[in-house]
Amino acid sequence: MPPGTKIFDFGWVAGHLGQVGERIVQHLQLTVIPLALGIVIAMVLAVIALRRPITYGPVTLVTGILYTIPSLAAFAVLRPIFGLSLLTAIIPLTTYTLLILFRNFTAGFNAVPAEILEAAEGMGYTRRQRLFRVELPLAVPLIIAGIRLASVTTIGLATVAAVLGDAFGGLGQLITEGIQTFFPTKYLLGAILSVVLAFGADFLFVRFERLVTPWARARAGAR
Amino acid sequence: MADQHRQAAVVEFDHVTKRYDAPTGKDKGKPTPGAVNDLSMHVPAGKICVLVGPSGCGKTTSLKMVNRLIEPTSGRILIDGVDAGTRELTDLRRSIGYVIQQIGLFPHQTIGENVATVPRLLGWPKERLKERSEELLAIVGLDPAKYRDRFPSQLSGGERQRVGVARALAADPPIMLMDEPFGAVDPIVRDRLQNEFLRLQETIAKTILFVTHDIDEAIKMGDLVAVFQTGGILAQFGSPLDILAAPASEFVARFVGQDRGLKRLSLLRVSDVPLQPAVTARPGDSAEDARRRALDDPQRYLLVIDETNRPLGWVGHGDIPADGTITPSMANPVSPTVNKRTTLKDALSMMLDADVQTGIVVDRNGAVQGLLTVAAVAAKMREGEHAPAFDALGGAETAEAEGGTDGETPMDAGAADQAAIEQGV
Q1: Which of A16, A135, A191, B401 lies 20 to 30 Å (CA to CA) from residue B274?
Q2: CB B175 within 8 A of CB B48
Q3: Contact residues, chain B, for A216 at CB < 8 Å
Q4: Does domain A17-213 have CATH number 3.40.50.1110?
Q5: Full-model pTM
Q6: Partner B contacted by A122 (CB < 8 A)
């Protein structure tokens, strides 16, 4: 760090709000798209595992292996194929969500008490009705727990997408630039904003869960 | 509701068998739990048929084959003559009420939504769903305004069980399947739920298949009782009285217990026994005439009654003066009064308490209708035991019975609970 550099230069931040805002939007893009794709894929896999329990083991194994691939290596492999496109970042970030989401979704389905399923079946729910009206709503707390975890992980991981450069780099780009130019304000800001985003996302999902599961808070004491 | 009202249906098991893979290892050779062996049984419309037996005897399997949660290996179950196996599955299930011990209310739905489950599946309009669930909550004794918007977790076990019954009744099904419906609540609540359900059945008159492992519950709830024994064999099928009076096998005799005589007494009522005429006289009647009539009667007692035929008390023939008139002060008011609805068990208990052989049977206004004697009760009990297929009162069991530890206490406790409830409500 050159002598005389401030640890954190609020003046610089005030002068570059537009640039910072752009990085935040990029970062949200790098988080929301993989998360949404991951939720869809993991849900399909979880429903398949619910119907055909034999698939649970293989799916866990494959998503587990995907999870262990170092992100930098994944970017390196994908960059020659997709270039500096959003896809190069989104593919690995999506695969990283799958293990967490799949495990939580299946745990959510498995946590639905057997007698509730028996009652539903005995009263004449079709399988589809049972899935959408009974199993999914009752799995919501564990489903959202998985999404919270995956979103926080993805927000952190997405900083690595800085390798994609200016067009899609997100807060990681801010951090990388700060390190390369010995400008602490930039990398501190990138890190702080990443943490704030993670907390913000977690808070939103907690609120959302409370909103959609009013029954989970209704207890005998709260008459 | 009236548009699709089907009161009740006939259920017939026609040589129904369910086999599972035979046990292996150390249990090899033992009967398979839950199997059912060539079950044929005719349940008339509007009756409660209780399936009772030890665990693993196939009673629950038999129940679940009706709504095809379990498919029979062979045989047919006919509902109003139609083979259930040929019906569309969800359609069949929506036409059968289903109550299980753990109730299985949907925790994410309000009580109102839970009750309206089957009508919703059947596509009833929204307004009617709401109407129907409120109507049903009221029927099972839960104030709709208070309970409609609550969640199942906010209810007690007994309240939840009522909601379970309301939910099963929602689409007015002709058949109800109830699998140990009152098994998870404490004895006092269970007794109350049983009584309420019997009262409800008087108006709804559904065909009900009811599974329990508790012979007392079977006797209390059943119009018909099917006793199952291990291996899925129907050991006996008949009215509770028939089964108590003449157990078909040693297994049934043991299963219904040594106190089956007492159990019969609690099923029979004073109206089931021929009443003896009483020799009566009113104060002011001729003592000489009354004395002569008392002497002619085998009881040799005179019952003094008032102007409205209410009993005042007994006078022994020796205490009736040779002349003059009858006076109220002669009467000794020792005998208990019972009515025709009193169970023989309660009547006998009162007579034992008063240390007398005779109870006075009165009508609603308290007027004497006749006398109930211990001898007549004993004769009634003998008469029920027509040609018993098995004599359960063998030497060993009689000796045990003399120990007198079993049977009596639970029944008395039950009666006490009942009294407590009636005062409490």
Answers
A1: B401
A2: no
A3: 108
A4: no
A5: 0.78
A6: yes
**Å between B121 CA and nearest CA of chain A:** 7
Top pLDDT among B7 and A32 is at A32
- Measured between alpha carbons, how far is A146 from A107 in angstroms, rounded to an integer? 10
Residues of A in contact with B117 (CB under 8 A): 123
What integer pLDDT is reported at residue B153 of this predicted model?
Answer: 93
Cβ distance B108 to A215 less than 8 Å, yes or no, reads: yes
Residue B278 burial (C-beta neighbours within 10 Å; 0-12, 13-18, 19+) = buried
Say if residues B207 and B223 touch (Cβ distance below 8 Å). no
Overall fold of domain B271-379: CBS-domain (3.10.580)
Q: What is the structure's pLDDT at B417?
A: 41
Under an 8 A CB cutoff, do B107 and A138 touch? yes
What share of chain A in percent tops pLDDT 70? 96
Answer yes or no: do A118 and B104 touch at CB < 8 A.
yes
- d(CA B39, CA B12) in angstroms, rounded, equals 10
**Which pLDDT score is estimated for B1?**
40
- What the block records as the tokens of A102 is 């799949």
Question: In this structure, are residues B48 and B222 in contact, taking their beta carbons and an 8 Å threshold?
Answer: yes
Provide the token pair at B260. 């089956």
Q: Is there a contact between A124 and B90 if contact means CB atoms under 8 Å apart?
A: yes
Mean pLDDT of chain A: 89
Q: Does B154 touch chain A (CB under 8 A)?
A: yes
What pLDDT does residue A5 have? 67
Domain extent listing, chain B: 2-256, 271-379, 387-424
**Rounded average pLDDT over A21-49:** 94
Whether the predicted pLDDT of A7 surpasses 90: no
CB-based contact B153 A124, cutoff 8 Å: no
Six-digit token string for B188: 């006092």
Give DSSP secondary structure letters for B208-270: EEEEES-HHHHHHH-SEEEEEETTTEEEEEE-HHHHHHS-SSHHHHHHH-TTHHHHHHHH-BG
Which ipTM value was assigned to this complex? Answer: 0.83
Q: Label residue A223 by pLDDT band (50, 70, 90).
A: very low
- Architecture in CATH of B2-256: 3-Layer(aba) Sandwich (3.40)
CB contact under 8 A, B100 and A122: yes
Token reading at B51:
């399936």
pLDDT at B414: 39
* Interface test with chain A among B113, B153, B160, by most A beta carbons within 10 Å: B153
CA distance A112 to chain B (A): 10
Alpha-helical segments (H) within chain A: 10-15, 17-51, 56-68, 71-82, 86-110, 114-122, 127-130, 136-157, 170-180, 184-212, 214-217
Which residues of B are less than 8 Å from A138 in CB distance?
A: 106-108
Of B102, B121, B153, the CB nearest to A220: B153
d(C-alpha B118, C-alpha B98), whole Å: 10
Report how far residue B341's alpha carbon sits from residue B336's, in angstroms, rounded to the nearest whole number. Answer: 15
pLDDT beneath 50: ranges in chain B: 1-5, 387-389, 391-425
Which 3 state secondary structure label does DSSP give B78?
A: strand
